[in-house]
Design a protein that fits this description.
Strand content: 15-25%
Shape: globular
Distance between the termini: 38 Å
Number of strands: 18
């Protein structure tokens, strides 16, 4: 196995995921895990993640002084990890006047081991303010970019390496090759981990944790909750109680569709209409964080109506939800609060009464689990839909009138994407109702109506995403249908921002 020490990077879980794709087991642990505990796993190598701090900050996370003396395994530091290696080994790190965020071109200086089969002038993904200005003794330069003279460094004898860029993100073209070189050529780890072992181990863990008690599972009909429901049903049978809660901010015809789907996969489902309760909680609320908090709280309150004192709550939480909400393993920065990370649920987590078997997986891994469980492709390849529903696709206050507008526009987007055979090949496509109105002309009359933004992104895991250049005739059809068929909308715009710096959802 390869241990990943988490220093709070938003990309930490991507590292573990990329290593698992190589059929090598990986595990994330906090950066301050005792050395004896790290060594007790007998890892073939250790990776130090990036992080939001500066190595010179007063409270910056640090390794113990004897870490590099006692951990006699190959080590790879990424971004913050590189800078920490440099300082610990006697080199120099300084704040840079020329920051690097996003794409950069890599110039390889040494292709002997870590950069074997990596093409020169390939694209890498940067995210840093500080840079290495002097190498520690014994280290050599492996690669550089226009703004980073020491973009990659290494000590071949001690098998300690550092990268300023992020090989784990999709945008680093040869990132997979670099991690493969580290895992196999440097760490000499065997390829012996697969998703089947995750399923078997998870079922055993669930049965051991739950015992004879009952589990209440929120089933939205999305990919995550559907895979979770089938996995739990296989583990628990009649001890599982799946509930679909209509929170009033679902898409058109969502409830009946989910009920049909669950009947097809053989998992019993209870339908609860709580739409009025949720909409009452959202009345007058414009702040997106407050929307998420209220939806999360109301979700738990509805569940607690039939929640026994010893029952468990199951959630289809994925790692992007966790890492963007609150750090569980390292000092990561909060990006946004997710509806399944509100205080009530955090309290249940502390009590050990929340089951989240998918919380360290990404969407593509969840789909792979679903395939192994025999779930139909039409359910596995649905586009992701946010837990707070259309509430976070309506900028500002959520009202019945504004929901009606967005539902109609959303329905048109989905219909046209399916007609164009693009719905199942693009990560996510949706409409966002904006706060402002604008002037338009329909016939001979002036209009002053709402605007919607279209969003289409391509992603592998949801942590990074590129906007999709949809065919212009398709955009024209979607725009024309929305403006002509949805009374109250007279303008459609297209979002061409990527993640980062934007997020996929607008709120």
């Amino acid at each position: 196995m390869i241990i990943v020490l988490d220093f709070g990077s938003q990309y930490t879980q991507l590292i573990a995921r990329k290593i698992r794709q190589l059929k090598v087991y990986s595990q994330i642990v906090p950066y301050n895990t005792p050395i004896d505990e790290i060594l007790s796993h007998n890892p073939s190598g250790v990776i130090l993640s990036g992080g939001p701090a500066s190595v010179y900050a007063e409270n910056a996370p640090r390794l113990s002084d004897d870490f590099f003396q006692r951990v006699d395994r190959p080590i790879l530091g990424i971004c913050y990890g590189l800078q920490m290696i440099t300082l610990a080994m006697g080199g120099t790190v300084e704040s840079s006047d020329r920051r690097e965020y996003g794409q950069a071109r890599l110039q390889v200086d040494d292709s002997s081991d870590l950069f074997k089969a990596v093409e020169n002038d390939s694209q890498v993904w940067m995210s840093h303010n500080d840079r290495v200005t002097r190498l520690p003794d014994g280290f050599v330069n492996l690669a550089h970019t226009a703004n980073s003279e020491h973009c990659a460094i290494g000590h071949h004898g001690r098998r300690i390496y550092g990268l300023q860029f992020h090989p784990e993100v999709h945008h680093t073209v040869f990132g997979h090759q670099i991690l493969e070189n580290f895992a196999f050529d440097i760490c000499d780890d065997p390829r012996d981990w697969k998703i089947d072992s995750f399923i078997d181990r998870t079922i055993e863990d669930i049965r051991e944790q739950v015992g004879p008690r009952h589990v209440l599972c929120g089933a939205s009909g999305g990919v995550d909750s559907t895979v979770l429901s089938v996995l739990l049903h296989r583990a628990l049978g009649d001890q599982l109680h799946c509930v679909f809660i209509d929170n009033g901010v679902m898409r058109r015809n969502e409830g009946p569709s989910v009920q049909r789907d669950f009947k097809e996969i053989g998992v019993p489902l209870n339908y609860v209409d709580a739409s009025e309760r949720f909409l009452n909680q959202l009345r007058g609320v414009e702040d997106p964080e407050e929307k998420r908090r209220r939806i999360g709280k109301e979700f738990v309150d509805v569940f607690f109506q039939d929640f026994g004192e010893k029952d468990y709550l199951a959630q289809g939480t994925l790692y992007p939800d966790v890492i963007e909400s609150v750090s569980t393993k390292g000092p990561s920065a909060t990006i946004k609060t997710h509806h399944n990370r509100v205080n009530r649920i955090l309290e249940l987590i502390k009590e050990g009464r929340v089951i989240e078997p998918l919380k360290e997986l990404f969407k593509d891994e969840v789909r792979e689990v679903g395939e192994q469980l025999g779930i139909p492709d039409k359910l596995l390849w649905r586009q992701p839909f946010p837990g707070p529903g259309l509430a976070v696709r309506i900028i500002g206050e959520v009202t019945p009138e504004r929901l009606d507008l967005l539902r109609k526009a959303d329905w048109i987007v989905v219909e046209e994407m399916k007609k164009a055979n693009l719905y199942y090949t693009i990560w996510q496509t949706f409409a966002v109702l904006l706060t402002f109105k604008s002037v338009g002309v329909m016939g001979d009359e002036r209009t002053y109506e709402h605007a919607v933004a279209l969003r289409a992104v391509q992603s592998v895991d949801g942590m990074t995403a590129d906007w999709v250049d949809l065919p212009h005739d398709l955009l024209a059809r979607i725009s024309s249908r929305i403006i002509n068929e949805v009374k109250g909308i007279n303008r459609v715009v297209y979002d061409i921002s990527s993640k980062p710096p934007a997020t996929i959802e607008w709120e």
